[in-house]
Model the fold of this input.
Amino acid sequence: MTAEAYDVVVVGGGFAGVAAAHAAGLRDARTLLVERERALGGNVSNAWVHTICGLFYNDRPEPEYVNRGVPEQFARRIIACGAGRPPERAGRVFVVPTYPELIGGICGELCRGIDGLRVWTGARVRDVELAQTPGAITRMTVEHDASTVEVTARVAIDTTGDGALAALGGAELLPAGAVPLQAPAVIFRLRSVDDRALRGFSPLRITSSIAGAVHGGVLPEGCDSVLVRPGRAPGLVYLTLNLAPIAGTEYRPLATDYMTDLMTIARERAERVVAFLCATRPEFARATLDGWPERVGVRETRRIAGQRIISEADVVDGVRGPDDVALSSWPIEVWRDYRRARFTYPSGVCGIPLGALRSQSHPELGMAGRCVSASSSALGALRVLGTALAMGEAIGTAAAIAAAERRSLRAVASHEICHSIRGSCHDVYPRYRPTG
Amino acid sequence: MTYSGQPHMTDPADAALGQTISMVHAILTDGLLAAGHQLSIRSNLFEAGLDSMAVAQLLLEIEERTGVWLDESLLTPENLATCEALGRCLHGVLMAKRDRKRDRA
Done:
């Protein structure tokens, strides 16, 4: 077994993890990003989530970025290279639609231009001993490229979305709530769809006709929540099918066998929906199911207990404080029932305090993204991609400051992070190595 | 539920129409649309964020509350323009259903 020493190890290469690793590496921390899948980008690359939410203020007439560092720069890069479209208004919010097949490459680009940042994809953390005291070293065993590596780090950051590193290392997790977990969705791609399907009123009527077919018994239960969005080329569309739990079971997103079964059922339902559209709508007469994601898009699993827990009231009231290191602007969007999203709009942007990104039980463990320290309802706002980027940048910056000055992650102050991020805002993309 | 712009209605038929409009308004302002409490019965629903997802959920809510599933053919831009327009459309469907029931009896 070989051994490698890093300042910062980030586990989980979704948007939060890429932003954390980028931010740490940009500040000259020796950084390792570990991702279990082959592609970076998390739910975007692997579950084809294709809308970046939480990037903008909701109360402005034009899209204005709420977090000016990596989130803004990353979104601008996605748009500039054609991996997404300029901001679009959806009701009172703005979103950046993306083409998920292209996002993994952009995530890789964000990481490749930085000296001292290494990325291991297709890698797994098999074991971890999280630092128990301030300043202690975290040790983990990582399987990568057919070898096993003993990795040490001054700071570990969990961006797995599931709190997987924290759970493996025995860190304190937030208890499961009394309410059901948010329903997942599967997103798949059709080709040879007439572009009229995406014009004007058509997407709305397609959604309604599918729901009506379930209501009338033409399609089975569970097919009734489908959304249609444009793909990256003419004829390509994405369909989002929100998923009910497997009949008679409790939804268990952390159980591999359960999710495999759910994916099988999702595929059957998707094929029924496609057959229905082909048979009933001229725009879909030649359509075929052209692409299927690696996994189901999960909205909620497990969160890590932090020094602070962001509550629903914090989000709704737009609470700000001196310890804030990022901002959340997305409404609380909760899918307790797969057919219904409930939206609660906050009175203003909510601050994300540093304490919500630092473990309560382990002083050198940070987190960002879906496993942030927040209530289940608050997560309905915080889990979106734009906010994940901002959280990742904040905790990655904190880790780099801690490593550079041989301090504990606990000893880094929020104003140091904000100062560092503001200073680097316009310095993100010059470090990219163009990939053509 | 109160809202701005509700017409004054004294006739029973008008009152029933007002209740239907009020129900549509209540469904849409209860977490479906961004505009929330700022939405009047004559606000433009598309400007307030009515999209595919909101319409699908709206249909479910209407079906649960009235037993009527609004057919896709009724989901025209005109009928979905405002709470008032949609309420009038739904009211028409409810009245037709009531008349059919009466005829059968």
